[in-house]
UniProtKB/TrEMBL annotation:
This is DUF4185 domain-containing protein. The lineage of its organism: Bacteria, Pseudomonadati, Bacteroidota, Cytophagia, Cytophagales. It comes from Rhodocytophaga rosea. Residues 1-28 form the signal peptide. It comes from the Bacteria. Keywords: Signal.
Length: 439
C-alpha cells in the first residue's frame, strides 16, 4: 500500500469514528432531554364568570373556603374611579367562580393619597396571592398588584425620581387626546383572609427616563413600565413574572433604536425574599442575564426563550410589534414542572387571538439559570376574530383539587382553562375548555 493510500485509510477511519461518536452523543443528548408534556383540550359548555375581570385571577384557600379577588380599585382619570375589586367565596373553585355579582364582597382597601404626597396612587388590580405559610390560620395574605398611573395622578418629583413628565406623552386607549398609562407592581397585605388590606409598597417599577414617548410610541398601550404579573414561591423567595414595556436604557428620541428596545422586552423575572414582603421597597432584584442582580427599578434581561425574534416580533411600543405578555404561572405536581400561559400581542392595544404555553422542569428556581429555562412557547388555542387576554389554569371541583386545596398556583393533571374574551362578547371572562396533561 502506498503512503498516500495509507494516510487516506487512516483519515477515513478517524472520520468515521468521529461521525459515529457525534451521532452517538447527539442521540444521548436527545434521550436525556425531558419529554415535552402533551395537552388535550376538552370542550365544555361555556362557564361564565359573573363579575368584572381584567387581570390574572388572584385566589387562595382561607381555611376550607376558596376565595377569589378579581376586579379593579382606585383612581383612573381615563376610565373613571373604580370600586370593582371584590372577593367571592366557595366550597371549591367552581362555586366561587359561579358566584353572582351581588354575592361579591368589597374589602377595605387603602384610600388613594392626594397628588404629590406619599401613598397609594392610581388604580390597582390583584394578580396573585401569596399565602404566608408561617400562619397556620391561612389568613395572612400578600397580594401582588398591577398599578397604573399617569402624569396626572403621579407627576414627576425631582427629589424622588418617581412620577412622569407630561411632555411628548403617547396616546392612551380612549382617543388621541388621552394619555397612555404607566404600569408598576406593588404589594398589599391582609391579616384577616382578605377582608381588609394595607399597602406595603412597590415590588418593582421603571422610572421616567425609560418611558418611550412620541414620536416612537404608537402601540396605544403603555408609555412604559412593568405589569401584568404572576408570582410563585420557590424556596425562600417569591419569583415575579411580568411584562416589560420600558426602554432598556435612557430613552432619547434622537438616538432611539427599535432593536435595542426589543432586546429588553417580553416576559421578565424578578424576585424578593419572602421575609421582605412586609417592607418590599427597594428589596427586589431583577434577572440581569447572569443572576438576580439588577435593582428593583434597574434594567434586567427578559427570558430569552420567550422572545419573538425581532424580524417577526418587534418592540412593544410599535403598532406592529408582536410579543408575549400577561404570564400566568403554576406548579403542576403531576407533570413535576412549572407551567406558564401567556397571551400574544399582535397589533395595537394588545390585539391577539392566541394563547401559548411553556414549561420549566426546574422546581428550584434559585440554582444557576434554572429560572430562565423555559421551553419555546407552543400554541395552545387560536380563536380568529377574537381578542384573548389573561389566560389562566384553574382547579376543578374534584375531590383531588379540593383535598389538595389547589389554586391557579398549584395544579394537577386535570384543569380548567379560563381567559378573557374581548369579542364578540366584550369583556367576557369564561371557560370553554378543560385540559388534560400527559407526561
Amino acid at each position: 500500500m502506498s503512503r498516500t493510500s495509507f494516510l487516506y485509510l487512516i483519515t477515513l477511519i478517524l472520520f468515521t469514528g468521529m461521525v459515529a461518536c457525534t451521532s452517538s452523543e447527539k442521540k444521548a443528548a436527545e434521550k436525556s432531554k425531558p419529554k415535552q408534556p402533551t395537552v388535550t383540550l376538552i370542550p365544555t359548555g361555556k362557564f361564565y364568570f359573573n363579575s368584572f375581570v381584567d387581570c390574572n385571577m388572584a385566589e387562595a384557600w382561607v381555611g376550607d373556603t376558596f376565595r377569589i379577588f378579581p376586579g379593579k380599585y382606585g383612581e383612573d382619570p381615563l376610565w373613571g374611579n373604580a370600586r370593582e375589586l371584590k372577593f367571592a367565596d366557595g366550597q371549591h373553585a367552581d362555586e366561587a367562580f359561579s358566584s353572582p355579582a351581588e354575592k361579591f364582597t368589597e374589602p377595605v382597601l387603602p384610600k388613594n393619597a392626594p397628588v404629590g404626597t406619599e401613598g397609594l396612587h392610581g388604580a390597582v388590580w390583584f394578580e396573585t396571592i401569596y399565602q404566608d405559610t408561617t400562619d397556620a390560620s391561612g389568613k395572612t395574605l400578600f397580594a401582588i398588584y398591577h398599578n397604573e398611573n399617569y402624569p396626572q395622578t403621579l407627576p414627576y418629583d425631582a427629589n424622588t425620581g418617581q412620577g412622569y413628565i407630561d411632555k411628548h406623552w403617547p396616546q392612551g386607549l380612549t382617543g388621541k387626546k388621552t394619555p397612555a398609562a404607566v404600569c408598576r407592581i406593588g404589594v398589599m397585605k391582609s391579616v384577616d383572609g382578605g377582608r381588609s388590606w394595607a399597602n406595603k409598597g412597590l415590588f418593582i417599577e421603571d422610572l421616567q427616563a425609560r418611558m418611550i414617548l412620541k414620536p416612537h410610541n404608537n402601540s396605544v398601550t403603555f408609555a412604559g413600565g412593568v405589569g401584568d404579573p404572576s408570582a410563585v414561591a420557590s424556596g425562600d423567595y417569591l419569583y415575579l413574572f411580568y411584562g416589560e414595556y420600558g426602554y432598556p436604557g435612557t430613552y432619547d428620541s434622537l438616538t432611539y433604536d427599535p432593536a435595542k428596545e426589543w432586546s429588553g422586552q417580553c416576559v421578565s423575572m424578578a424576585r424578593i425574599k419572602l421575609s421582605d414582603l412586609e417592607n418590599p421597597e427597594g428589596k427586589a432584584r431583577r434577572w440581569d442575564g447572569n443572576g438576580f442582580n439588577a435593582a428593583h427599578n434597574g434594567i434586567g434581561q427578559p427570558i430569552a426563550s420567550l422572545q419573538i425574534p425581532i424580524d417577526s416580533g418587534g418592540p412593544a411600543s410599535s403598532a406592529t410589534g408582536k410579543y408575549y405578555w400577561g404570564p400566568s404561572v403554576s406548579w403542576n405536581y403531576y407533570l413535576n414542572s412549572w407551567v406558564m400561559l401567556m397571551a400574544r400581542a399582535e397589533g395595537p392595544s394588545w390585539k391577539g387571538s392566541r394563547i401559548y404555553i411553556s414549561y420549566n422542569p426546574n422546581k428550584d428556581l434559585s440554582t444557576g439559570n434554572n429560572s430562565q429555562q423555559w421551553t419555546k412557547p407552543e400554541l395552545l388555542i387560536d380563536k380568529p376574530g377574537h381578542i384573548l387576554w389573561y389566560p389562566s389554569l384553574q382547579p376543578l371541583n374534584s375531590p383531588e383539587d379540593i383535598g389538595n386545596k389547589n389554586t391557579s398556583l398549584k395544579l394537577g393533571q386535570h384543569v380548567r382553562l379560563f381567559y378573557k374574551d374581548q369579542s364578540p362578547e366584550k369583556n367576557v371572562y369564561w371557560s370553554e375548555f378543560q385540559i388534560k396533561f400527559e407526561k
